[in-house]
Design goal:
- The protein is of the alpha/beta class.
- The protein has 15 helices and 15 strands.
- It has helices at 41-59, 75-84, 88-105, 120-135, 165-171, 213-225, 239-254, 285-290, 295-303, 315-341, 357-363, 368-387, 393-410, 422-436, 440-452; strands at residues 4-7, 12-15, 26-30, 64-68, 139-141, 147-149, 188-192, 209-211, 229-235, 259-265, 268-270, 273-274, 311-313, 455-460, 463-468.
- It binds zinc ion (ZN).
- Zinc ion (ZN) binds at residues 31, 217, 242.
- Zinc ion (ZN) binds next to loops.
Length: 473
């Protein structure tokens, strides 16, 4: 069966047909964090879903080119920097670093590119796009000097969220704080400088100011992935107005269909409630680690529920994750022992049968619960065969090979079981030599090669240290 996904745009399950998989990789854009505070585990649920999606596409033979932006300029980052009395970049840098650290802890593969919205190259692209929209009559500068998108001129506005424009006013889904707009739903493309912005501003044909949040994603997606992309993901919160606005901006400029498949991840609840600082149920990745859990356990807990179903996070669920992983660990240890033993006395045809059910389940709109159900059913069956001494070493090796394959998607193997491959060690050595010669460019290139192999190198007091990273395994 072919791969199929639920497309938010059509509200239907559709067969996945990328633009041209033989000539180019699957182009995927995922909205990244706004770096004004540490991301919470609800944010990471969406990033883990995107990680699962990318890894499954790769298991199915696609090459994936994924971009994830970093929003480092908007109201909250500016306010945070002002309150902390530090320059914007210094303020956002700490949360950017924290984000990548947490993503590493959760074994989320790093995107091919993580462009920052404040990068002048992309600001230039945003200004270009806004100019194009103005010249097409799709945008206008209002009396407050800001530039807005004219939603009445884009008939498809509201299609992704299945909203009627005339309803916008009454739904309360748009803010009423900008009175200079023609339509209450018109959204800012360029925000004119305001004294609260301090020194955060860029020059533009409309005066000093800063880009709106939505145009960032349209511009960076176009700059790095081209006019048309295959998959765009985010949390359900992003559907309106963010993704709706992205469609209007991108298609407004190019006249071409922007995204083929829109995939959105449902909310994370904590103890059945919405996560909120005021309720005391707001957790970051370090909060969970501080309770004695590992990144692998949290990865499992956030991964195991279908992405379109709200996930209820509980500490009991974390303990279940721990138990499930312990079962996998024990099973692998037993299989390894038998595989090593060379025991060929008990050929077991049953242990060789169907193993495609795992990936078939993921083909079905990433049905992870069914895939994991099959994994644990297989563990039960093979454990029984091992209990009865009916597993020979060749069958055990085959099960281990199968695990290796599905683990490229799950990435749930215990830390201690992962040996550092020779080529990674060699690259790290070469990098150390380059550093001694103060050849920083070469050293950076080698770090990227190491990262592409799934490892991160960190320079410590005791020399370079390699840890499992977010690249491909
Ligand atoms: Zn976005």
């Amino acid at each position: 069966m072919a791969l199929r996904f639920f497309n938010t745009y059509s509200r239907e399950i559709e067969e996945f047909e990328p633009v041209d998989p033989t000539a180019r990789p699957v182009r995927m854009y995922t909205c990244g964090p706004t770096v004004y505070s540490r991301a919470h585990i609800g944010n990471f649920r969406a990033y883990i879903f995107e990680d699962l999606l990318q890894r499954h596409l790769e298991l199915r033979g696609y090459k994936v080119h994924r971009v994830m932006n970093i929003t480092d300029v908007e109201d909250k980052t500016i306010r945070g920097a002002r309150e902390a009395s530090v320059p914007l970049q210094k303020f956002t840098e700490q949360f950017k670093d924290a984000f990548f650290e947490d993503a590493r802890t959760l074994r989320i593969k790093r995107a091919c590119a993580s462009p920052a919205a404040t990068d002048q190259r992309y600001v230039d692209r945003m200004i270009e796009m806004i100019s194009a929209l103005i010249s097409k009559g799709l945008a206008y500068q209002a009396d407050d000097k800001s530039v807005y998108f004219r939603i009445n001129k884009f008939p498809d506005y509201g299609k992704l969220a299945h909203l009627d424009l005339t309803e916008l006013q009454s739904t309360g889904r748009v803010k009423h704080d900008e009175y200079d707009k023609e339509h209450i739903g018109d959204f800012a493309l360029w925000k004119a400088w305001d004294k609260a912005d301090g020194d955060v501003n860029w020059d533009s044909p409309w005066g000093p100011g800063r880009p709106g949040w939505h145009i960032e994603c349209s511009a960076m997606s176009m700059a790095l992935l081209g006019d048309q992309i295959d998959i765009h993901c985010g949390g359900v919160d992003n559907i309106f107005p963010h993704h709706e606005a992205e469609i209007a901006q991108s298609e407004g400029v190019t006249g071409k269909k922007f995204v083929r498949y829109w995939l959105h991840c449902a909310h994370l609840l904590v103890d059945g409630q919405k996560m909120a600082k005021s309720l005391g149920n707001f957790y970051t990745v370090p909060d969970v680690l501080a309770k004695g859990y590992t990144g692998r356990e949290l990865r499992y807990a956030l991964l195991r529920v279908h992405y379109r179903v709200p996930l209820n996070f509980t500490w009991e669920g974390m303990n279940e994750a721990r138990e499930s992983l312990a079962r996998i660990d024990e099973w692998l240890a037993r299989l390894r022992e038998i595989a090593k033993s060379g025991n060929l006395q008990h050929p077991t045809p049953s242990a060789q049968r169907r193993t495609t059910a795992f990936e078939d389940a993921l083909d079905d709109d990433l049905n992870i619960s069914a895939a994991l159900g099959f994994l644990f059913e297989s563990i039960r069956e093979t454990n029984r065969a091992m209990d009865q001494n009916e597993m020979d070493s060749a069958s055990a090796s085959r099960w281990l090979d199968w695990w290796k394959r599905i683990n490229t998607v799950l990435d749930l193997e215990a830390e201690t079981d992962v040996a550092i491959p020779d080529d990674v060690v060699q690259l790290a050595q070469q990098r150390e030599n380059a550093r001694r010669e103060k050849n920083w460019k070469r050293s950076d290139e080698l770090r990227e090669q190491i990262s592409a192999l799934g490892w991160d190198v960190r320079d410590t007091k005791h020399g370079p240290k390699l840890t499992r990273g977010a690249g491909s395994a």
